[in-house]
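Weekly structure sync, notes
Attendees: PL, DS, HV (note-taker this week)

Item 1: Rubredoxin
DS walked through the input record. Source organism listed as Vasconcelosia minhoensis LEGE 07310. Sequence as pasted into the shared doc:
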Amino acid sequence: MSTDSDPNGAANSERPATSESAPEAHEAAAEKGLTPAEMDQYECRACGYTYEPSKGDNRANIAAGTPFEALPADWRCPVCGAGKRQFSNVGPVGQASGFKANLDYGFGVNRLTPGQKNLLIFGALALGVLFFLSLYGLR
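Item 1 (cont.): predicted structure, written out as tokens:
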């Protein structure tokens, strides 16, 4: 945790450090005794902002490890200002998206996390562009 001062000169130790990496933040939240359900991410349906309990919300001075249900009733999305009712549970960080029954279909692609899917899609696209450009060397 970092210690910042407000304009009045008083120290504010409630603010989490922004230099914590995601695994360290998850470990810190686990040390606080959060259950896996409390670690679920919530996504704003209006703008796509994702609230992660392991990181908290620096703009509203919400400490890391604060579950979504424990946020104040007047808390709003820091990006678009939507209320808590506009957020939907998207599950824990790094979990494959989709219904559990459908994860076994396909060539194993359904079990990939969203980040892995992005790497696969854009990596294949870049490789295709590279092959296309290499055709100019076949004179």
